[in-house]
Design a protein that fits this description.
By secondary structure, the chain is mainly α. Helix content is 80%, strand content 0%. The mean pLDDT is 92.
């Protein structure tokens, strides 16, 4: 199980890295074409959108794995230990799990709909499904990490 976790972490990190490099390259190339060569790189926004979706959504999985999401958890700061701290962490993790599981279910329906309709981007004809898969994977990944956190909450108690 630990090897699977390390492999998934490696995949997440490398997908985010490649997507970030892709965003950087597309923005740089489009700017160079526009301002140095007076050429409009048509379709670059579509590729940029795909790289951005993968960067943002797989980055969200990575943030869930490392517990580095942005939070405004004042109660968790005030009540770190004891029963109150446990209940606050339990509520936070459970709400996260319910939200991520709901969104994961909706993303299955969304992906099914996208497969049936088969939309493509206007300029380059890239299947829209490619970008939507990042959304699909992110909610399943985040729900999985919520389950991990819930299990750890009870195992460490």
């Amino acid at each position: 199980m630990k090897k699977l976790g390390l492999f998934l972490a490696w995949v997440e990190d490398h997908v985010v890295l490649l997507a970030t490099v892709g965003v950087l390259c597309i923005i740089s190339l489009a700017a160079a074409c526009r301002y140095l060569f007076s050429y409009n790189l048509s379709g670059s926004e579509e590729i940029l959108g795909l790289f951005s979706a993968w960067m943002f959504f797989i980055g969200a999985i990575r943030a869930s794995r490392t517990n580095s999401q942005i939070t405004a958890d004042i109660l968790g700061v005030l009540f770190k230990g004891g029963v109150a701290g446990f209940l606050i962490r339990l509520t936070r993790i459970t709400l996260g799990l319910v939200i991520c599981a709901t969104m994961a279910w909706w993303s299955v329906e969304f992906i099914s709909w996208e497969i049936e309709n088969g939309g493509t981007t206007p300029a380059l004809g890239i299947p829209i499904l490619i970008g939507k898969l990042a959304l699909f994977l992110s909610f399943f990944g985040m729900a999985g990490y919520c389950l991990r956190d819930l299990a750890n909450l009870f195992l460490k108690r």
